[in-house]
Predict the 3D structure of the following.
Amino acid sequence: MNHRLEPTADPLPDAGAAPRGCTVKARGWAWKHAGRDTPAVAGLDLDIAAGERVLLVGPSGAGKSTLLHALAGVLQDDEDNASAGELSIDGQPADRASGRTGLMQQDPETQVVQARVGDDVAFGAENLCVPAAEIWPRVAACLGAVGLDLPLDHPTSALSGGQKQRLALAGILAMRPGLVLLDEPTANLDPDGVREVRDAVVASVGRSGATLVIVEHRVAAWADAVDRVIVLEPGGGVACQGSPAELFAPGPVRDRLAEAGVWVPGYTPPLPARVPAAAPGTGLLRARDLAVARAPRTAPALADLDLGIRAGDALCITGANGAGKSTLALTLAGLLPERSGRVEARPGLLGPTSAGVGAPGEARPYLWRAGELVTRIGTVFQEPEHQFVTATVRDELAYGPRHARRPGSNERLHTDAEIDRRVDALLDRLGLRELQDANPFTLSGGEKRRLSVATVLAAGPRLLILDEPTFGQDANTWRELALLLREQLDDGVAVIAVTHDAAFAAALDATPYPVGRAPSTTPSAAVPTGTAPVIEPDAAGRDSFFGRCNPLAKLAAVVLATTPLIASLDLVSSTLVVLVSLLLLPLAGIGPLRFLARAWPLLVAALFAAWGTALVGNDAGAVLLDLGLATVSEGSLVSGLATGLRVFAVAVPAVIVLSSTDPTDLANALAQQARLPHRFVLGALAGMRLLGLLSEEWTTLGMARRARGVGAQGSIPQRMRANAGQSLGLMVQAIRRASRLAVTMEAKGFGGRQRTWARTAAFAARDAGLVAGGLLLGAAATAAALAAGTWNLVWG
Amino acid sequence: MSNTLTAAATTRRSWRVVDIVVASVIAVASGIIFWAWNTTHHLLDFLFLAFPPSSALVAGMWLFPAVLGALVIRKPGAALFCEMVAAVVSSLLGSEYGWTVWVSGLVQGLGAEIVVALFLYRRWSLPVALLAGLLTGIFGGVNDAFVFAWFPDYTTAMKFAYVGCMAVSGLVIAGLGSWALTRALSRTGALAALASRKASQERIAG
């Protein structure tokens, strides 16, 4: 499907057939999550009328998300959860109203299920068994309704956060729900993204007539768009409710909400007046003619930068999404190498502890060891979990100072007693004393944010670099962060923050440092890092002959062609298959260079297999190499070559054919034609979509951990420990994302026995030709080996 | 509260959507760890040049999704499913074993699956994990050395040495490693939606 959809006159055709809005009723409803001592929600009484638009607010822990998940029917049916009372939609118990509701959550990455825009919008409708012929018109109408003018085969991974949320909304609308539930839909978005999503929701959900329930911390954007605001009490029911004008007008309710950290419209947490230092401090860091890029050899995101920062300075890097702000921050932090130009530490940052003054690279943060870096520059990543490296809050705070090293030596910078004092002071300052034995990953969002800043401060850096520190935080955490950073500034620490938050910049009296070009049409998510593994074929591969063949036919052809090679160890059959495969490269749309890039590990494996056999194979003929225990002779060298070539020949056809295979097509064929259970096939496919994201996360984890003092250098055991820690970090993020993705899929009706398929998998004439070709190649290889007298069964 | 809280229906054996998706993503994340490992493990190859069958000592890296999947998901078929998906991912990324990696994934996954099935999907302790890793290694080793016979010129003794090395590797990397990883994951709260959420509080030998 390459055609671009024309926007239809009526974005929601036959809107009269769409179901009216649902009513919601709760009576004494309660829910307790597995493993928790207290219920998330208890004694909730609530009525929402059909078509009403409601904003749910309350302090964190008030059970807002739990209620939304219950209404969406996705609270896990698990023996350890417990519920009480009644929660119904249109008089039906909420857990049986599947198909009447649609849910959007905050993390845009896990709101998308499929790899292509059109497939993703169709996904929910397919699960609800909407006939295939009806799905595509719905997809077109719903993409129009949310204002996404994109080709149906546009890759979803190339969308910005705001576009992903609008795509998710289109998928929800395509299910024609009577109740639309939005769980902090804009918390992870920049101000432009927030407006974009809000406008799409107001325009499209309003027109569909569905009831709308929104949970959001930053309520200002939504106050005008709702009829009623309901305030929930932590662990209880409704605290109060009323129109936005009533509740958010100056008065006790507004004050109480603000005190609980809710961003009521027009509210900025009050901070004491501050007098910034008059005299400029000593110079800490300087960048000259700097260009920055995510990966070496890629085009710079930003170039020709010159900046300097002094002790006590606050600098705020601003700019459009995807402008390269984070890349600049990571480069200044010594976590990414300069693309060109120099980042140079000045004496104020190098400090008196510096030993080898004048040594090459001494002033270049990227070349510092992790243990030196943490004592000079502290970097706080946007996602606190990326930087957690131990199992308790206390160890987390002690980790940086414990691994701090005197520059140029392996001598520890702090004694244990000093570290204890420092950790105790931070625990008290941040109110984390009670939680000192808790696992950092189990803290609340605000606590994680405070801890991640504190862990970096613990090593006593002179320069702090923070990436969007206030993203998704409630007003109370925001205020604490501002106060904490002000203290640091007053102590002569410099702060560089990447932020969209103008109020936060003002609170730090930060100098703005705007960067970047005009907002580009391709957001940062689409920029390939150049080093990540790639699972989807490129355009040349997709449009090639093999790219258009049925994946099952391709598999059959590969198996038929290579089975003789598995049966026989001989040079003749292997050589024939390798040669024919290489001749077929153009059919897969792969050039020789790309083939080599994909095939080099195969060559290494083949050489290793060849060596192994040459060394241990039966000796015959002249001895070529004598190693004492084993020898390589002419005879064993020939069988070594045959072994290596066989390994290579079995792999090559599969590599060529699979490189042109799209996972979505493979899944469709496996589920529709091979009749494998569709829940498992589509679940695996959805998981594979996270591959690119997780591999980026792996890179980010490496940098985030270096910023905490975890060295990638060192002895082999040290490296293995660091790798194990990073693997755990990756698994935690993978499972968290998977859990959210599962909620998205379930809320879109996934998991039933039946579904329809908007895109049908079929066999064509070329597939028969392909299978015949595979059979022919296998037969030819066998015949050639038999004719040459080299046929040699491996099981003989 | 007017009513007392009542527990939801028991669904111990059947797969929920969250089980399927988490299992898939574990396999995909394993694929990334394989890929990161791929660039280092060929650097280790020289260690095994003197006695090639010992290269199987690091093969446990390819086996851990089977045991990890079983320990985290705790449903029938989890070991098989995770190892299969990991194999498909690695073949799509360009595996050095071609399509046969699908078969290897199936066979290796079966090794771990048989062990947890013998314990009726009720025991997830360290000994069970070690046994699962061991059998996965044996299955994988036999598959490589005798079924696909990647090293036809090895003597029978060397083929058995290969299987033995892979069994040890499976026991340590896939068995012990996955067990430790599951407990570490459970401490982070990431397993909250899964049957293994309390893995870190379970008895080691139980």
Observations:
- The radius of gyration of chain B is 18 Å.
- The mean pLDDT of chain B is 87.
- The CA atoms of residues 16 and 194 of chain B lie 10 Å apart.
